[in-house]
Amino acid sequence: MKTHRHEIKITTHERLEFVNITAEVEAAVRASGVQEGLCLVNSMHITSSVFINDDESGLHADFTRWLEAFAPYRPGTDYRHHLTGEDNADAHIKRQLMGREVVVAITGGRLDFGPWEQIFYGEFDGRRPKRVLVKIIGE
Amino acid sequence: MKTHRHEIKITTHERLEFVNITAEVEAAVRASGVQEGLCLVNSMHITSSVFINDDESGLHADFTRWLEAFAPYRPGTDYRHHLTGEDNADAHIKRQLMGREVVVAITGGRLDFGPWEQIFYGEFDGRRPKRVLVKIIGE
Amino acid sequence: MKTHRHEIKITTHERLEFVNITAEVEAAVRASGVQEGLCLVNSMHITSSVFINDDESGLHADFTRWLEAFAPYRPGTDYRHHLTGEDNADAHIKRQLMGREVVVAITGGRLDFGPWEQIFYGEFDGRRPKRVLVKIIGE
Description:
- The structure is a homotrimer of 139-residue chains.
- With 139 residues, chain A is α+β, with helices and mostly antiparallel strands.
- Chain A has one domain (2-138): YjbQ-like (Jelly Rolls, Sandwich).
- Chain A has 3 helices and 8 strands; from the N terminus they run ββαββααββββ.
- In chain A, the strands form 2 sheets. The first copy, chain A, has a 5-stranded antiparallel sheet, with helices on one face. In chain A, strands 2-7-4 form a 3-stranded antiparallel sheet.
- The first copy, chain A, is elongated.
- The termini of chain A are close together.
- Chain A binds chain B through residues 1, 36-38, 51-54, 56-59, 61-63, 66, 70, 97-99, 102-105, 107, 112-117, 137-139, and chain B through 1, 3, 5, 38, 40, 42-46, 70-71, 79-84, 89, 92-93, 95-97, 99-101, 103, 131, 133, 135, 137.
């Protein structure tokens, strides 16, 4: 069995931002030498997500509006979490809606994807250095 | 280490529909010969989900009403994604709510399930040929 | 390849409750002897979740209020699922929002976590014996 570990470093310009990380995950799969196996990609932070969806800016605007409607950014004390001095309860909730991680099959040395699948990092409390973990196991 | 790959083909009659795929995943696990390992089951499309919940039609009606309330099907330009000519932004959002994939343990050559766990394909933009990927690794 | 299986037993005092299970998952990783691999942690029930987020009681109160707003506990027949005699359709929906499982990398014999990641069992229909499955594969 082979294993491989890679960290993707991301600092977004905006508080909420979606970053396509597919190419860097593919590079990690090639570096691993794994032909058949599984690839875990997860945010190492609890106010951001890794998810698979479409690379279309209009859709990302729809995601943003929808996330803001259900978990609005409100730095005040509407959120109990903010009694600790934090201002990012909305980001913790948005992360639950979009998910922490994806697991992708590796077949023939490549990510085994459907026609439109792309991997995104979804940042909800950005402008700070963050990390995404890629862990590959297989043979 | 053994690996096994199987594709489940699904074309739903309705735009939104839930399909129980547990038996076909179990058959893939038997075909793999894996006794101990992990089984990844994911939609290969970005407007549908794979999830685990109850096989009860009333609950599925509740899921449908709830999904429609939070991400209504509206072919017009309420959604920015529709400026591209698409009409399925709601389906991309519903898929985020219900999830892309499940990972299930394999123990003693079988899916290691609790008492009521069943695997579903959740289609949100159907009436077209779609695929679900089953990837099994273990020994 | 090594595999290891462990069940965590939980009976909550409240109907909705969050339980930090990180220490028991870490103990299972140590017991497995796996140095490099993957650790699956999933609820074996369909009205509860396993998720990774912050161990902060104010945030948990925010999660609870948010979940209750989007899938309120209503034992009556607002939910179609309740025509079967059940009263927990809200718990099935809350579980979809918070997720069934997490997959965590194992590196150097430990859970490969970011700075604040903690694993929680999220119960939405409790006061009964429930189980969480930990399945570890690697070498």
